[in-house]
Design goal:
single chain, alpha+beta, Helix Hairpins, Heat Shock Protein 90, 3 domains, five-stranded mixed beta sheet, four-stranded antiparallel beta sheet, 10 helices, 11 strands, elongated, cell membrane, transmembrane, transferase, membrane, HAMP_dom
């Protein structure tokens, strides 16, 4: 709206001043000047003739007194030193040319009297060209027409973008969730267009996620529900106590699986809450990753070797919420451990204004087919593993990482590790400017 207001004010001011100047110039050049020029020449001739008479008269003051009494054109003699002229006008004046100078309330004509220290000054009535009512009306009409035309030109891009916004909104409302406003470098409502596209993107993502979650939940619940039904039926028929305990344990495992799925769904749904309070603060990524890696080795005992490659300076500052940074770390690292053969490497470095946290493994990597879908909810790789114990995941870890990263202008990049030949997941975060 600020751009809209500023451009409107600038257009009105420019049109008003510009048209006023143009109309004033046209009037002075083609209307007032023509008649003024004729009178100007007439007074120059009068001044030239009168100066000649005064030059050869023995009583010049008497002649001028009689002249002033007989008409309304005032004439008088002045000292030559009172008239200061630029060099070019001075040369013309010495050569006998009558000089006309315009003042606030009058125009004066100066002529040189030869062989004298005096000059003749002629002051006629004010040379004012009065415009006619028709001319006034014409110039007024031209002025307001010009202003309206300028404002109309300014409004055309606005009306075009508003009409496009209206059509896109109707198209989106009719079910075309991919409808977006095309970008335009010159737009008065760029912020509104950006807000609409962001809203449409968010709505489309939510609807697609809901469809995907519905399909995934129905699919992931079928297996534990079928096992529960089978287990309960078998439990009723089984009489041996040891077998009954085994079936009880399996039923509990299936319930744990279902409960884990519900918690995962709730955690993912919370990521769409726009009222989440983020505790952003400066974090040294080198110290954070080192501490989290040490804690991971203590909590989870695994045969996978975890190595660190920290930036030489030991300081890579980012602005992040520590809780959500830990969530990304755990998802990426545990995912790498589950797919690694022997080794996982964690790297922290900075480049071109960004901080990078890379998690590489020596597993089989990610296929081209998986790259297109692996960040979607409930999508798993080809070989889901459970090296850290517990049941296999629900395919939500990378989707959560990507969604959280968007809050902090961060990206999750996927590539093949040049050193370990497996997958390489990289968190790319802007270096700390301010929090």
């Amino acid at each position: 709206m600020r751009t809209l207001t500023l451009t409107l004010v600038a257009t009105v001011i420019t049109a008003t001043i510009g048209l006023g100047y143009i109309i004033s110039w046209v009037y002075s050049e083609f209307y007032a000047k023509s008649e003024f020029s004729e009178e100007h020449k007439a007074y120059q001739n009068i001044s030239q003739q009168l100066s000649t008479i005064v030059q050869y008269s023995e009583a010049p003051n008497a002649i001028l007194e009689q002249w002033n009494m007989s008409g309304n054109i005032h004439a008088q003699l002045e000292d030559r030193d009172t008239l200061l002229l630029p060099q070019q006008l001075e040369e013309n004046f010495k050569n006998g040319e009558v000089i006309a100078l315009e003042f606030d309330d009058s125009v004066k004509f100066y002529s040189l009297i030869n062989h004298s220290d005096e000059i003749l000054t002629l002051t006629p009535p004010a040379l004012i060209q009065e415009s006619t009512p028709v001319e006034n009306l014409a110039f007024t009409f031209i002025f307001y027409t010009g202003v309206i035309f300028a404002i109309t030109l300014w409004l055309l891009p606005l009306f075009t973008r508003l009409r496009l916004l209206d059509n896109t909104a109707k198209n989106f409302g009719d079910g075309n969730l991919a409808a977006r406003l095309p970008e335009c470098k010159i737009s008065y409502i760029k912020n509104i267009e950006l807000a609409f596209n962001t809203m449409a993107e968010r709505i489309q993502r939510l609807i697609e996620d809901n469809k995907m979650l519905s399909r995934a939940v129905s699919h992931d619940l079928k297996t534990p529900l079928a096992r529960l039904r089978f287990g309960l039926e078998t439990l009723q028929e089984e009489e041996r106590e040891d077998k009954r305990k085994a079936y009880h344990a399996r039923i509990h495992d299936d319930l744990d699986t279902m409960e884990s799925l519900v918690h995962t769904l709730l955690d993912y749904a919370k990521l769409d809450d726009t009222h989440i309070a983020l505790d952003k603060k400066p974090i040294n990524l080198c110290d954070f990753i080192t501490a989290e890696a040490s804690q991971l080795n203590v909590v989870h005992s695994t045969a996978i070797t975890i190595t660190l490659a920290i930036a030489p300076a030991g300081i890579v500052m980012v602005c992040f919420d520590e809780h959500y940074l830990r969530m990304i770390f755990q998802n990426l690292v545990i995912n790498a451990i589950n797919h690694a053969n022997n080794r996982v490497q964690l790297s922290v470095y900075e480049k071109s204004g960004y901080a990078y946290f890379a998690v590489e493994d020596d597993g089989s990597g990610v296929s081209l087919e998986d790259k297109a879908r692996i960040f979607k909810p409930f999508e798993r790789g080809e070989k889901p593993s459970t090296k850290l114990g517990g049941t296999k995941g629900h395919g939500m870890g990378l989707a959560i990482c990507e969604r959280v990263g968007q809050w902090f202008s961060a990206e999750i990049l996927l590539d093949r590790s040049a050193e370990l030949k497996g997958a390489s997941f990289i968190l790319k975060v802007p270096l700390l400017p301010s929090c």
